[in-house]
Prior knowledge:
The protein is mainly α. It contains 15 helices and 4 strands.
Amino acid sequence: MKNMQHKAWLAGFILLLGCQPPGLNKDGSPRFVAQERDLIFSLSPLAEPPANPSNRWADDPQAAHLGQYLFYEPRLSVNGQLSCASCHNPGLGWSDARPVAVGLGTGTRNSPSLWNVAQQRWLFWDGRSDSLWSQAIQPLESPLEMGHPRADVYALFQREADLKAGYEAVFGPLPPNTPAGIDRFISHMGKALEAFQRRIRSGESPFDRFARALRQQDLPAADAALSVEAQKGLRLFIGRGQCILCHSGPHFSDGEFHNLGLPRRPGQPEDPGRFAGIAALKRDPLNALGAYSDLPANDTWADKLRYVVQQPENQGEFKTPGLREVAQTGPYMHDGRFDTLEQVIAFYSTVGREPAALGRREDTLQPLNLNAEEIAQLAAFLRSLSSGPPEAALTQQPKSVVFE
Length: 404
């Protein structure tokens, strides 16, 4: 309800902006009015990832080291050839540049980028995990991805001295070889992987430099940071395009789920999205309210899980992705149907011309009717959200599994 009220206020704010004549400087760049500047400042800078009290090792350096080793370790897959980095390659925007994920089999959804993944309230396109550590476990066992049942992964750690030593340096002795002990073990695996992935963060982008200069009223520095074309795209993003309704905040995502009315692609199965995700989330023993969570009693962090309710309107909804580094992370949409940013923007420009594959398209989505120049401007702005390549130290497996 709070999110809906915020969106209603924001929509009214944007409508007010749309009624005002857009000012331009002599060089053709926008002269942003006070209301526009407020919206711009709401998008920058990106803060540190929020705390995760369900994982007591979330910010532990030793756990992060172990998680980084495991992220690049192919022994975790059943065939010894795949790792987390197979679908989340740091050289490909922490994704894989494919329309849909390919592991032991071929999936039906695009591999989400891991840039700023710790900023997300829900994980997976359908939100079926409520923490990064519980999410990290599912690809290990998925028959389409790494295909390694947790009991077999536990046995691997029992017999491989280096993996056992790395685990025990962080978590203590391996739990007993019982169903509950193996579940405890695999939850620790996920928590180490989360600790590493929390370090995958964007640096300062051209847009951030622009926003900082604008806040300081240093207009020459602002113009040097962002091209005229990108500034015009920014005005569209926060104004007539209404992109900010869903791509809000410094992560450029409201963290929620929406039905965009995408038509079904030939040969693809029906995908209920968030509707099925809520059901899977509720029954997952590794969710934040389960026995393997480190969440203190009565902590409100898991209220999102306590109060989420499956509704018919959730059919066909998928999570709003963050837009930082988006130029690196194509193809786009939950099924990877669009190769370029321009194609994505063109879809929004003409949205609603075809029936939705499932459920009902969100009413706030109306055709933008952008011309080619405006599409190019929006794409230029989106490219200004890239900060550069990832930190080199994060892009390879450490030499030793044990933190030194």
